[in-house]
Specification:
The chain is an alpha+beta fold. Helix content is 29%, strand content 22%. It has helices at 21-25, 47-61, and strands spanning 3-8, 14-18, 40-43. The chain binds zinc ion (ZN).
Length: 69
């Protein structure tokens, strides 16, 4: 079962919600596990994948001259 990370804007806490894909498609009503606020937004764990992409241009450049060559 997939887990979704949510961040609460009211108490600045991040928590995990476990829900099936069909539950998510129906419109999952997520409230903060800590303070009960509905002022939450999903955090995409793909951010860490974006961090990996950062290294790609460095490898692709293959040079540490800083653009001088
Ligand atoms: Zn909260």
């Amino acid at each position: 079962m997939p887990a979704y990370e949510y961040h609460c804007d009211d108490c600045n806490e991040t928590f995990t919600v476990i829900a099936t894909v069909s539950q998510k498609e129906k419109g999952l009503q997520v409230t903060c596990r800590i303070c009960g606020s509905s002022n939450v937004r999903q955090v995409y764990t793909g951010i860490s994948v974006g961090g990996k992409k950062k290294t790609l241009p460095i490898i692709g450049g293959g040079c540490s001259c800083g653009g001088a060559c």
